[in-house]
């Protein structure tokens, strides 16, 4: 038994037993996913011959690949015909129809209830891949903090990005971007899938964005934290909760701003606050900034759900039937919009992809703003309701803030 | 295509394609691992009939279980004959010899190069399971920060636990525990496997430990951060690096203390500093506290590698051949020990399990201290070189600090 334990000083003996007994899993050596100099990608999956092995991979044509057995390496293999685009890519393996993450790659990311592996091809220094990478620049800090929510009467978790220098210079104060996740997301989504800390580090280091604090709260008031991080324990994440879209989160949002202003060195005024979010978080951002017009000078709606999409859309309308629209957030809609815009927000930025299922309701929302004579900036991209777009929007929105 | 995207507002279309095409993976509903009220555990694995399905599981007798096909749920099943102990348990599945994490459970933890799922049985309020859980108590914050290392001439990542109240009361200063990982570990090991933030939250909330800052640096000076978190990108983690055990990390340790004292509200004196570590981190702790006797009043050696184990042990001696023992850290060993103890450290705590492969060299190290007349506290447990022991040692060591 002691001999076994010798194989790794900090590995628990129980874990070591895994490799001792089985041949086809265990320690990886970059053997399973290889990005070639030209950004083509090879996948390798170690298993006995005779299985049907596939990969779901965003870098493969059509997002699916068949791996073939290579007897010389005792593994199934696949190489993409073309280089991968310079984006954040995900993949997982399927053996005889059962899907799971790569046994030989520890780098995984959660998207709601799914876990996938991810890769980052090498970028050219300025593209999305480069902006998402950990480069040799000053790094900010990511801090998980818990605030007491008077409205929910419990502690709730949020993530806070503090820019490089926050802890060393104890006198400087910063503007704040509140960055909101979508339905199915939580306070970890912009961190893990959105790569917000890396994007902010790189934008600030290049002088493209002002040093700022980024607050990433949890917008699901039915829970206190992301699945596994809260008092509910190791529950499985869900995408739907009863009070999503109810307006209660938005009405209580000043308690989050108050906590942040009291706990971090912020510049606590409208000119130094922005709120932006993706999908449901865009809905939240529009609602919060309309209800509290003195809070935010900058608003970003990334592929936003609109009030129309929630009351009439095929997918969303179950969240807000007519008898659940009594929250103050929904009252005097046009009047509040006019009040908000009468204060001349420095930026009201709407971004969406042409394939997005929310494209039409966003078009209608822009038409409403146009009919009321309220000015906004519009940014349209290809693509749909995807993290590739939301990372792009963050990269484009953030440099416009606090100038 | 738009219909497909409707299935989840924030899930990328590409990910959704996974569930659309395959039946045996995707969203979990706690269907795959179930902890019964009496702490027995059921595992379920969805796959077609005809495969050989096993689980490696620390809660199963002998750590291995055979799952049998249950046609009524179209899944393989297994239930433990006895309740799981109130500890942090890990498991993974094997299908036809290929091992991977549970496709229906997103809660995974990395141990060096392995990824496993983990579960936490319900505790009785005071046991290890309870101390590792997220309870309804004031929570500290975990912050990843990067410090500039003059010795390595690069930025390096560390994790810092700041106790509850750190950000709200901007005047209070705190003592600091430096908590070091073992070989194969990094700055994330005490956070993920060690559950240090949860343990500190709970000990402090119960009044058992003083509020303190816990600094968890990266002890592998060959890299700047844990695999995937640093400038090397998404490399696979390794357990061995050329400069482990070389003494260079320990010699440069004052630069970490200096960074912490300059960036956080510490009480910057010996009476308010502790250093402790597991395995290689215990070796580091002994070396640092001996080399710099004015830095630490509290020292904890958890299953520590000793200088003897590194120069003579079967496994470790390749790291420190005779020609690599010229670092100042290794000179005047007994003289430095005497100098350290002449300053009457408040606690020099040695803990090890009777089955640990380092037990004999620890015994010899204690004999040396005895022969020199140097006082220490000794805590012996059952078990070996395991995280269950290291979490126990943290739970027992921390309440003795800064009283």
Oligomer: homodimer
The largest β sheet of chain A comes out as:
8 strands, mixed
- Rg of chain A is 23 Å
Provide the helix percentage of chain A: 10-25%
How would the global form of chain A be characterised?
globular
What is the correct CATH architecture of the largest domain in chain A? Answer: 3-Layer(aba) Sandwich
* Poorly predicted segments of chain A: 1-29
Structural class of chain A: alpha/beta
- Tally of structural domains of chain A: 2
**CATH C-level category of the largest domain in chain A:** Alpha Beta
CATH level 4 superfamily of the largest domain in chain A: Alpha/Beta hydrolase fold, catalytic domain
Proportion of strand residues of chain A:
15-25%
Please, what is the average pLDDT of chain A?
Answer: 91
Number of separate helices of chain A: 12
Q: State the separation between the terminal residues of chain A, measured CA to CA.
A: 64 Å
Number of strand elements of chain A: 18
Biggest interchain interface, per-side counts: A-B, 115 and 116 residues
Strand order of the largest sheet of chain A: 11-12-14-13-15-16-17-18
Q: Kindly report the CATH topology of the largest domain in chain A.
A: Rossmann fold
Order of helices and strands of chain A: HHEEEEEEEEEEHEEEHHEHHEHEHHEHEH
């Amino acid at each position: 038994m002691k001999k076994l334990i010798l194989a790794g000083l900090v590995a628990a003996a129980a874990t070591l037993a895994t490799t001792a007994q089985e041949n086809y899993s265990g320690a990886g050596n970059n053997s399973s996913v290889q990005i070639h100099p030209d950004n083509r990608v090879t996948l390798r999956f170690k298993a006995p011959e005779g299985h049907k092995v596939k990969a779901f991979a965003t870098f493969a044509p059509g997002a699916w690949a068949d791996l073939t057995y290579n007897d010389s390496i005792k593994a199934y293999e696949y190489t993409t015909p073309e280089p991968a685009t310079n984006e954040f890519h995900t993949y997982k393996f399927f053996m005889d129809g059962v899907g799971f993450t790569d046994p030989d790659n520890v780098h995984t990311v959660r998207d709601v209830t799914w876990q996938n592996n991810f890769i980052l091809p090498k970028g050219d220094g300025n593209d999305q891949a480069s902006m998402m990478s950990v480069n040799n620049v000053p790094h900010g800090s990511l801090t998980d903090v818990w605030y007491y929510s008077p409205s929910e009467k419990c502690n709730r978790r949020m993530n806070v990005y503090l820019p490089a220098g926050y802890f060393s210079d104890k006198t400087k104060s910063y503007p704040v971007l509140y960055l909101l996740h979508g339905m199915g997301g939580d306070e970890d989504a912009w961190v893990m899938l959105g790569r917000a800390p890396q994007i902010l580090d790189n934008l600030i280091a290049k002088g493209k964005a002002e040093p700022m604090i980024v607050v990433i709260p949890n917008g699901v008031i039915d829970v206190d934290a992301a699945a596994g991080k809260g008092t509910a324990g190791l529950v499985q994440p869900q995408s739907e909760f009863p009070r999503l879209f109810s307006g209660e989160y938005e009405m209580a949002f000043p308690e989050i701003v108050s906590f942040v202003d009291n706990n971090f060195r912020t510049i606590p005024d409208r000119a130094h606050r922005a709120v932006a979010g993706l999908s449901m978080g865009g809905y939240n951002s529009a609602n919060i900034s309309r209800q509290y017009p003195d809070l935010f000078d900058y608003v970003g709606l990334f592929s936003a759900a609109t009030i129309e999409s929630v009351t009439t859309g095929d997918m969303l309308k179950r969240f807000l039937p007519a008898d659940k629209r009594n929250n103050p957030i929904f009252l005097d809609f046009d009047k509040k919009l006019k009040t908000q815009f009468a204060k001349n927000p420095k930026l009201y930025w709407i971004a969406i992809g042409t394939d997005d299922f929310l494209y039409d309701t966003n078009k209608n929302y822009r038409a409403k703003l146009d009919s009321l004579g309220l000015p906004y900036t519009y940014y349209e991209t290809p693509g749909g309701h995807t993290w590739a777009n939301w990372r792009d929007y963050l990269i484009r929105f953030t440099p416009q803030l606090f100038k």
